[in-house]
Design brief:
The complex is a heterotetramer. Chain A is mainly α. Chain A folds into two domains: 83 residues, no CATH class; 174 residues, MetI-like fold (Orthogonal Bundle), CATH 1.10.3720.10. In chain A, strands 1-2 form a two-stranded antiparallel ribbon. About 5% of the residues of chain A have low confidence. Chain B is an alpha/beta fold. Chain B has a domain of 250 residues: P-loop containing nucleotide triphosphate hydrolases (Rossmann fold, 3-Layer(aba) Sandwich). In chain B, helix 3 crosses helix 4 and helix 14 crosses helix 15. Chain B is globular. Chain C folds into three domains: 224 residues, Dipeptide-binding Protein, Domain 3 (Dipeptide-binding Protein, domain 3); 160 residues, 3-Layer(aba) Sandwich (D-Maltodextrin-Binding Protein, domain 2); 117 residues, Dipeptide-binding Protein, Domain 1 (Dipeptide-binding Protein, domain 1, Alpha-Beta Complex), CATH 3.90.76. Helices cover 27% and strands 22% of the residues of chain C. The chains are: A mainly alpha, B alpha/beta, C alpha+beta, D mainly alpha. Chains in contact: A-B, A-C, A-D, B-D, C-D. At the A-C interface, strand 1, helix 7, helix 11 and helix 12 of A face helix 1, helix 2, strand 8, helix 6 and helix 12 of C.
């Protein structure tokens, strides 16, 4: 019952967030310089034609009017159509003319639905890798503050955070794919294609997990109940694994919720480098092409994902620590 | 004694680096006996308790001596065995039950976990049954349900009982109880003491009862050890120790003990002059908080923190407000200091309503109305130096220049007995007593007229308390302050306050002059409070007669009728349906109890000893 | 016809068998027989499959696989004007204004329709419509007339337009033949939805960034040996190299010299290096100050040391001193082409009224990054060289889309003052560059309006014979352009493709399109 | 922490412990550890090099020498020369010089961005946490909204159209990165707000502004500052990512971002171009972290927290 009311409340708040995001992005895209119509119509198109198209598409209406129209669609599950991508799925670039013969444009929702699962697969795998790398070291660092595991965590974190993801991506491809030939790297042809990009992404996220874990484990180990557990006759292993880690996982969970956008940012670049056909690649292309409906759609979907992930994180945190209530 | 001692300590010395914490301690404890250990804070009593279970904090080392449990040397045991011995044979209950269990697991599961860790053979079901049975044995209501609840859902008293269950669940031969009643309300503390006594009888457990409160120890223990500066200075059976202390330290301890019923001339409670004007008037003040309900659509939960409080504080007097935790004292403090406005009613300071003052006017008023906070630890900003903390009010009110402020802060430090060298130090290094002096200095530097002391002395041991009380008296004589003491400490209030208001669940149930309250309480709750107060004197009221088991109802869903009815031995039908109004008892005194209704003749009144 | 396909004997070819290697993941993914050729393109394609709707090179390359042309121009430097007939049996000038095209018989489109003169007529007329973005020279639809005496004969009459019908010869290699049926279906018809041609590969679908083509078994010159072609857009040059290295790609394009160096160490990769039809230019915005002043434009040209640029480009660039590529009809090394000459530059600056660059406004030089090799690098060099002479230039490096948006002239002049761009057309026809950019009716990027240039362009278009036309281009038009310098051609691109060694039988045209009809994996 | 501040702190180490202010004691405590010294000298060294070397070097970080391009660093490969200790880049520019100048700009971007994020996030968090109620709800929903848009989408959306200059990059990154700080700040403030000394300060007559800015802010900033060090590095990398997308600082100004982004193409032939800035970044960050960790320990010692 509480879960239901909690969900109702959070989803309502989430709707507000998504609305704010939509408005923010919508406004931003319309006040920054750069006319999407010129891109749609192509550089060679005459000015009158550009104005004509803009008028027809309602792009010269006041922003609130445009926004209202757009949100009206969004509520009905219609994120609009891409300015540039045709329904046939072709990517667009270069200077084409928006003549009468242009193909029907693709639905934003379809484009996102096609690519999102790929990105989810990538994100999940990288999360698994990141946890595999960061948890043992982070926990050891937290258990022995000031000693070598703590330092290892610190230096490893510094090292990882200094590695630009696109640099690391290339180095790893050269090593693991080109030199050793262990893994495929570019494009997507099956699950194996996800491993390398996920690894790169994992190394990008790991420092933050490392740091949070080190700090929170160290903090939990200072808690009264950890000290008391010894005198209550519990073994060290049990104390660390059943109590300390459980409590230390709450800040980690929260971090994952908050740093969601970090993950997404990484996904963007990594998908571009690896030519991985996910949401990130779609986003980069959309942004570079000024495909406004697509950018908006992606922003809405990602903020919805953010809201959902944070609800899940909070539910999980509550399950771990009942004090948090709902 | 013919029985072999359960535990025997010989020549135990514990040191932190070069500093000796415990010096050559020897003691022995027979099975089923209760040994009391008394000492003020810093005497090393907690270290001793922890040394007995071979669980010393990092940095402390046993340098000499041995601890034998049933003849085996505890200190040389292998780690795993020591751990099992610790949990199974020797139980330990600490002073702070609040953080002693993992907050993310239910109490029951942790009890089961503990039992199975020290007694691997026990099945889950068996462990569960035992835990529930013991929870019942320590008088936790509906133990089956409570078993599944989380630590944060337990009140302090219940948590302490749960910790006792945790220690007792493996049926240990020895229980080390380290200051377990200290954080509890007196009525709850009294219940715990009663419980300890039952335990020795019921489970044949020997208890080492460590406490800083001599009356509590004397009440419970057979023999008492007195620890001072890491050494045992005296060892006597309880009655003889109280009657004929041999060591000067013990004598001093007994002498400093505030008394309830006998007047030993340690200062007189300060009453106001008959014609003194009211400096602060509380007029029908109520305050209700709303807690977010579990459901977004459901009703908010209303916590009635203060209900219809109405009294005056007269200039020059010491006014006391007593009550147990949750009675609304803290809310009252916030209302009195104008931190929060009341929902209804008025708080008048010097005749002006605090709630309507803002900005500069309010700031000016605040110069004359100051507060000394309760917790010596969280009340000082941790990263500001002591000098700056004390000078802060001058800063805020833009009084004096830099030098002037520094001079005044240093003067004030001198007045409250803080070394000038501490000016640039951080509060971190200070003892609780010193911290409270900083608090007092900070409040007094503005030379206010009314000082509100919110549990200011609660965290201090009696020696420190006595010193600060002397300080307050001296400063009052010098500056002519009016004090409002908000406290749960009956003995302190008895010593200091001229008039006392007793609060229970948000209501001022009784308001009386000092003498009248103690010798002729008008409200059964006042009487229960008095009966529970630890004292070495012969008790005027026996707890058994005055208080029923159980804890105060939650202020969220108050039952109709008198709030105390559920714990009141004298309650009758009317009490459960109707909330008694205040019945005047002469002077400014009054109490809210139907027993005082002229229309009612109660057994209590008949039984009044001095009637 | 016979020699139109040359097997690649280029550098690194035929070096051993594929190395055996524990690529268990890759192998499992690539082991199937009849694998397609995976081509990684540096440039994105448009969403509109109508061949006349774009000038995008990568899409032209896809059309190269799918579409048929009347003739193809291999455009090798030895003989820039060489033409090989494909769909045409012969192309003959009947007289100055009439061209007769005879078609091969028995050719069908991928959709099963037979290819006939009707389709040629429709294609010519549709492709020359003024509203077609790729509208091709020589003139709008109403300036010529196409008649089809029978199913295999087409006659083009240009007497209405007043120019020579010979201009259609080179264009035969430029315009892909579309089906008349598709064209008739109108703007919303299948033309924009898919490609339909007579080429060796059939368009299957667009899957994200991949264009899937499969072998067309009824190709009139015999079914291709490979199962198909996967044409993928991969924006990042490094990513393309990496997929070449790990064997996922069969061909990649637009290699940079360093990448060439990297790949040359690989035994199983061979290369094709071709001087292309593409020149890279520094375009001046001639319709707005200060570059509306030819003196200043020339001064800027003299400030640039093209030898440094070529050094940076290494094998990716070939020197040329004209506005068209050496493999275009009419190329000549111009004698008056501006060379690096600081003194001349200073002199011209002073003459233009900006001695030492004094008084010049802040100048913006826009270049792209990601498509053409080394643009940023030589952009930095050009900026530095111009600054050395006192031009207050700032370089603005943009990703392709942003650059593209700013590329073309607009009323009041295009953005910035100089912009970097190349121009490539799959035909020897020089007017596809010269007329497009420098005639006041087109003035794509520069925005130049100059009557003398217009007149020179018209003169060479109206020349009676090819010889006369060549003469006019070499002695009249291009020297005039070198003098007025509406743009500065920096060099001619060398197209470098890397190809897996086991892939044989490709023929690569200088515009980058590839004939893979006889390609096969060894 | 500026180099200057550190030297005075170090100088003060000899003074009498008692009369020294708290901050000096923390600095002195940190100074006593070897780690701090290593970090300090590492950072100081690199900072001095970045500030001084480009000024005194005869070379120009933007001067190209195409004939001497892609020379390897000392003792590595063929053709190295003492004139270019870290080799040259794809246009024959000195890598040492470019890395150092790049470090300047990257630090400028990293630090200003983090300061901006701290300022916005700190203020939002402070107000939300201290005021609570409606202020809190509104501010936190805005924060959540901002947080839910990946920074990079926002950055490329804005920078893709408004051309990237250093101030624009700082502004965009700063404006999109603050929510995390706002959330952290809010939770710390909410915890502190309930403490008694805040109540005490109110009774003393302190205004809300005073409590927020004089009492809570300094207290809550310190723990956040240590997170911020990690973020400085992250922002420097982020600038590199923007450079990689062609939205970074424009040439010829070298930043770590555009050096790495441009050098990436040559990773196989001339690995040092893209790698050197990374090495500098690591040294800078490791030094900062070493100092930070030592300061944190010292601070905990002085404030009586856990060591």
């Amino acid at each position: 019952m509480f879960v239901v009311t909690f969900l109702v409340r959070r989803l309502a708040q989430g709707a507000v967030i998504i609305f704010l995001v939509s408005f923010l992005i919508f406004t931003l895209l319309r006040v920054v310089p750069g006319d999407p119509v010129r891109l749609m119509a192509g550089g060679m198109a005459p000015e009158e034609l550009i104005e004509q198209i803009a008028e027809d598409m309602g792009l010269r209406d006041p922003i609130p009017v445009q926004f209202a129209r757009y949100m009206g669609g969004v509520i009905q599950g219609d994120l609009g159509q891409s300015f540039l991508r045709p329904a046939s799925g072709a990517a667009v670039g270069g200077a084409q003319f928006d003549d009468a013969t242009r193909a029907e444009r693709a639905e934003v929702l379809t484009l996102i639905a096609e690519t999102a699962p790929m990105t989810i697969q990538l994100a999940l795998l990288s999360m698994v890798f990141a946890l595999l790398i960061a948890t043992p070291i982070g926990i050891a660092g937290g258990l022995y503050p000031g000693r070598w595991p703590d330092r290892l965590a610190l230096y490893l974190g510094s090292l990882f955070v200094s590695l630009p993801n696109f640099w690391l991506g290339i180095v790893l491809v050269l090593l693991l794919s080109v030199k050793l030939g262990w893994l495929p790297a570019i494009g997507y042809g099956g699950f194996a294609w996800t491993i390398l990009p996920a690894l790169v992404l994992a190394i990008e996220i790991a420092p933050f997990i490392l740091r949070t874990l080190t700090v929170s484990v160290a903090q939990v180990m200072q808690e009264n109940y950890i000290a008391a557990a010894t005198v209550r006759g519990l073994g060290r292993t049990r104390i660390v694994f059943a109590h300390a880690l459980k409590n230390a996982s709450v800040p980690l969970l929260n971090l994952l919720g908050v740093q969601f956008s970090l993950l997404l940012g990484g996904v963007l670049v990594i998908e571009f480098i690896f030519d991985y056909p996910g949401l990130g690649l779609l986003t980069i292309n959309a942004v570079l092409q000024r495909d406004f409906p697509l950018i908006q759609g992606i922003a809405i979907v990602t903020s919805a994902a953010f809201v959902l992930i944070n609800i899940i994180v909070d539910l999980a945190a509550t399950a771990i620590d009942p004090r948090l209530d709902y | 004694m013919s029985v072999d001692p359960l535990i025997e300590v010989r020549g135990l010395t514990v040191a932190a680096g070069d500093r000796v914490i415990l010096d050559d301690i020897s003691l022995s404890l027979a099975p089923r006996a209760i040994l009391g250990l008394i000492g003020e804070s810093g005497s090393g009593k907690t270290v001793l308790a922890q040394a007995l279970v071979n669980w010393l904090p990092a940095g402390l080392r046993i340098t000499k001596g041995e601890i034998r449990y049933r003849g085996r040397d505890v200190l040389t045991l292998p780690r795993a065995e020591a751990r099992r011995l610790r949990g199974r044979e020797i139980g330990y209950v600490g002073a702070n039950p609040a953080g002693a269990l993992d907050p993310t697991l239910s109490v029951g599961s942790q009890l089961v976990e503990k039992l199975r860790a020290v007694e691997p053979g026990v099945s889950k079901q068996e462990a569960r049954d035992r835990a529930i049975a013991l929870l019942g044995a320590v008088h936790i209501p509906s133990p089956e349900m409570r078993f599944h609840e989380y630590p944060f859902q337990y009140s302090g008293g219940m948590m302490q009982r749960a910790m006792i269950v945790d220690a007792m669940i493996s049926n240990p031969a020895l229980l080390v109880a380290d200051n377990i009643t200290q954080p509890l309300d007196v009525t709850i503390g009294a219940q715990i003491i009663k419980l300890m006594r039952e335990l020795t009888e019921q489970f044949d457990t020997a208890i080492l009862f460590v406490s800083s409160s001599l009356p509590t120890v004397a009440d419970l223990a057979g023999d008492i050890l007195v620890l001072s500066n890491g050494a045992i200075v005296e060892h006597q059976p309880a009655p003889s120790l109280v009657a004929t202390p041999r060591h000067p330290y013990t004598e001093k301890l007994i002498a400093e003990l505030p008394t309830l019923w006998t007047d030993r001339g340690v200062g007189t409670p300060r009453e106001h002059a008959p014609d003194a004007p009211a400096i602060m008037s509380i007029r029908q003040v109520s305050k209700t908080y709303e807690a977010a309900g579990k459901s977004p659509f459901g009703a908010k939960r209303r916590i009635q923190a203060v209900r219809n409080a109405d009294f005056d504080v007269f200039e020059g007097e010491n006014f006391g407000v007593v009550g147990e935790s949750g009675c609304g004292k803290s809310t009252l403090m916030r209302l009195l200091t104008g931190l929060e406005p009341p929902d209804s009613g008025q708080v008048l300071f010097e005749g002006r309503d605090l709630a309507v003052q803002h900005g500069a006017a309010l700031r000016a008023t605040r110069q004359r109305l100051q507060l000394v906070l309760q917790d010596p630890y969280s009340s000082l900003p941790p990263q500001t130096s002591i000098g700056d903390i004390i000078a802060e009010p001058l800063h805020i009110h833009a009084i004096g220049g830099r030098r002037e402020r520094r001079r005044r802060a240093l003067d004030m430090m001198g007045e409250v007995g803080l070394a000038r060298a501490l000016y640039d130090e951080l509060p971190a290094g200070l003892s609780a007593g010193q911290r409270q002096r900083v608090n007092v200095a900070r409040a007094m530097i503005l030379e206010p007229r009314l000082l509100i002391m919110d549990e200011t002395l609660s965290a201090l041991d009696q020696t420190e308390q006595a010193k600060l009380l002397d300080l307050f008296e001296r400063l009052q004589a010098q500056h002519n302050f009016t004090y409002v003491f908000i406290s749960h400490d009956i003995a302190m209030v008895r010593r200091v306050c001229g008039r006392i208001a007793v609060m229970y669940l948000g209501e001022v149930v009784e308001l009386a002059l000092n003498q009248r309250l103690f010798f002729d309480p008008g409200h059964p709750y006042s009487k229960a409070l008095l009966s529970a107060a630890p004292t070495l004197e012969e008790r005027r009221y026996r707890p058994e007669d005055c208080l029923l088991e159980g804890e105060p109802p939650s202020p969220i869903d108050l039952p109709p009728g008198c709030a105390f009815a559920s714990r009141c031995p004298s309650a009758f039908a009317r009490c459960r349906t109707e909330n008694p109004p205040a019945f005047p008892r002469g002077h400014h005194d009054r109490a809210e109890c139907f027993l005082l209704d002229p229309a009612h003749t109660s057994p209590l009144q008949k039984a009044r000893p001095d009637a | 016809m016979i020699d139109r396909r040359r097997f690649l004997g280029a550098a690194g070819a035929g070096l051993g068998l594929t190395q055996i290697n524990p690529r268990f993941f890759i192998d499992s993914a690539y082991a199937q027989a009849g694998q397609p050729i995976v081509f990684l393109s540096a440039e994105n394609i448009t969403g509109n499959w109508d061949p006349t709707a774009h000038t995008t090179l990568s899409q032209k390359n896809i059309e190269g696989y799918v579409m048929g042309f009347l003739a193809r121009a291999p455009m090798r430097p030895e003989d820039p004007g060489e033409m090989n007939y494909e769909l045409a049996e012969s192309i003959e000038l009947l007289d100055g204004s009439r061209l007769q095209i005879t078609l091969k018989s028995g050719i069908t489109f991928h959709d099963g329709e037979p290819f006939s003169a009707r389709d040629v007529k429709a294609t010519f007329e549709y492709g020359a419509q003024p509203d077609r973005p790729a509208q091709w020279y020589p003139g709008p639809t109403d300036s010529f007339e196409v008649t089809t005496p029978d199913d295999l004969t087409v006659i083009v009459d240009t007497s209405k337009g007043g120019y020579s019908a010979s201009l259609f010869i080179f264009l035969a290699a430029y315009l892909p033949m579309m089906s008349a049926k598709d064209i008739e279906a109108g703007p919303d018809g299948p033309l924009s939805q898919r490609l339909n041609g007579t080429g060796p590969f059939r368009f299957v679908e667009q899957r994200g960034n991949d264009t899937i083509l499969e072998a067309f078994p009824d190709y009139f010159q015999g079914a291709p040996k490979v199962s198909g072609v996967t044409f993928s857009f991969v924006g990042d040059a490094t990513t393309r190299i990496l997929s070449m290295l790990n064997g996922q790609a069969s061909i990649i394009e637009r290699l940079e010299p360093e990448q060439l160096e990297t790949l040359e160490q690989e035994p199983n990769i061979k290369f094709s290096k071709l001087v292309s039809v593409e020149n890279k230019y520094l375009w001046f915005r001639c319709s707005k100050p200060p570059f509306d002043n030819p003196l200043l434009r020339k001064a800027a040209c003299h400030a640039i040391d093209r030898s440094i640029i070529l050094e940076i480009l290494g094998e990716a660039g070939s020197p040329s001193s004209n506005f068209i590529s050496p493999i275009k009809f009419g190329y000549i090394d111009l004698e008056n082409y501006p060379e690096y000459d600081p003194e001349e530059c200073q002199r011209l600056l002073a003459e233009a009224g900006y001695p030492g660059g004094e008084g010049l406004p802040e100048l913006e030089y826009i270049t792209s990054v990601g498509f053409y090799p080394k643009t940023k690098e030589y952009g930095e060099i050009i900026t530095a060289l111009l600054q050395e002479q006192g031009f207050p230039v700032t370089l603005n490096v943009m990703e392709v889309a942003a650059w593209n948006e700013r590329l073309y002239d607009r009323p009041g002049g295009g953005p910035g003052h100089m912009i970097d761009c190349g121009w490539s057309t799959g035909s020897p026809e020089p007017d596809l560059v010269l007329r497009t950019h420098f005639h006041s009716s087109s003035k794509r990027i520069t925005g130049i309006v100059d009557e003398e240039i217009d007149a020179a362009l018209d003169r060479e278009r109206s020349a009676a014979t090819l010889e006369e036309r060549e003469q006019l281009i070499q002695t009249d038009l291009t020297p005039m352009l070198a003098d007025k310098a509406p743009a500065y051609s920096l060099f001619t691109s060398v197209m470098i493709h890397a190809i897996q060694s086991d892939l044989d039988g490709l023929f690569i045209y200088p515009d980058g399109s590839i004939d893979a009809s006889e390609a096969d994996f060894a | 922490m500026t180099a200057e501040g550190m030297t005075t702190a170090a100088g003060a180490a000899a003074d009498d412990d008692r009369t020294r202010s708290i901050s000096r004691r923390i600095a002195a405590g940190a100074w006593a550890s070897v780690e701090f010294k290593i970090g300090f000298f590492g950072f100081l060294g690199i900072l001095l090099m970045a500030l001084v070397w480009p000024e005194i070097s005869a070379l120009d970080p933007t001067a190209m020498n195409v004939r001497a391009r892609q020379l390897p660093p000392l003792f590595l490969g063929e053709g190295w020369t003492w004139a270019h200790p870290l080799g040259t880049d794809q246009l024959g520019r000195d890598m040492l010089l470019r890395s150092l100048v790049g470090l300047r700009y990257s630090l400028l971007i990293g630090i200003s961005t983090v300061l901006l994020m701290l300022a916005i996030g700190g203020l939002v968090g402070l107000f939300a946490g201290y005021r609570g109620g409606l202020t809190d709800t509104v501010l936190m929903r805005i924060t959540d909204a901002q947080l839910s848009i990946p920074m990079i989408i926002l950055a490329i959306a804005i920078l893709g159209v408004a051309r990237p200059t250093i101030p624009a990059i700082i502004l965009v990154l700063g404006l999109s990165g603050w929510p995390v700080y706002a959330r952290v700040m809010r939770s710390v403030v909410m915890a502190e707000r309930k403490k008694e000394y805040v109540r005490g300060a109110k009774v003393l007559g302190a205004s809300d502004t005073r409590i927020m800015f004089r009492m809570l802010l300094p207290l809550c900033l310190t723990p956040i500052a240590f997170v911020a060090v990690l973020d400085v590095a992250r922002m420097m990398i982020f600038e590199a990512v923007l450079g990689f997308l062609g939205l970074g600082v424009q040439p010829p100004t070298p930043t770590f971002g555009n050096i790495i982004a441009d050098g990436r193409k040559y990773l196989v032939n001339a690995w040092w171009i893209a790698t050197m800035p990374g090495v500098f970044l690591f040294i800078t960050l490791a030094s900062l972290n070493l100092m930070g960790a030592a300061l944190e320990r010292s601070r905990n010692r002085v404030f009586g927290g856990v060591g």
